Amino acid sequence: MYELTVKSRFSAAHSLCGYPGDCARLHGHTWTVEVKVCGHELDKLGMLVDFKDIKRQLSRIIDQLDHSLLNDLPEFSTGGSNPTAENLAYYIYQSLLKPVAELRPGLKLKEISVWESPDAYATYRED
Ligand SMILES: Nc1nc2c(c(=O)[nH]1)N=C([C@H](O)[C@H](O)COP(=O)(O)OP(=O)(O)OP(=O)(O)O)CN2
Ligand SMILES: [Zn+2]
Asked: Where is the active site (predicted)?
């Protein structure tokens, strides 16, 4: 089994509704997103998948988040959930599941991790 990891960053603001502390107030982070994909077969170039292809798919999602107020995204404004690192990891996972699988047969999205700071991150993966 091979595993590839790609990271990217974006800047965005959020507030955590109902949080018992200062995170309930509007504030911002430079978020880091890490994508892990896995599969068994390499192509004739010796790649599981080109890093560039994963980066391109991740950029499609991140470009919509960059310099935004995350609470305004439909996923959070209409869904009523907070834009936590956990919920963002879930959102990005669901957004990338099909595009990653379509890059090549046998390629799977393994997990998404989202850092709010260098010291704290959340990961979403399917059981
Ligand atoms: N499980 C989670 N806990 C917290 C989240 C989250 O998304 N999931 N988010 C926050 C706030 O967004 C907060 O801004 C981040 O807190 P923290 O990582 O502690 O960052 P700080 O810059 O506030 O660091 P300090 O060392 O506490 O000053 C809170 N919890
Ligand atoms: Zn925060």
From this structure: 23, 67, 116
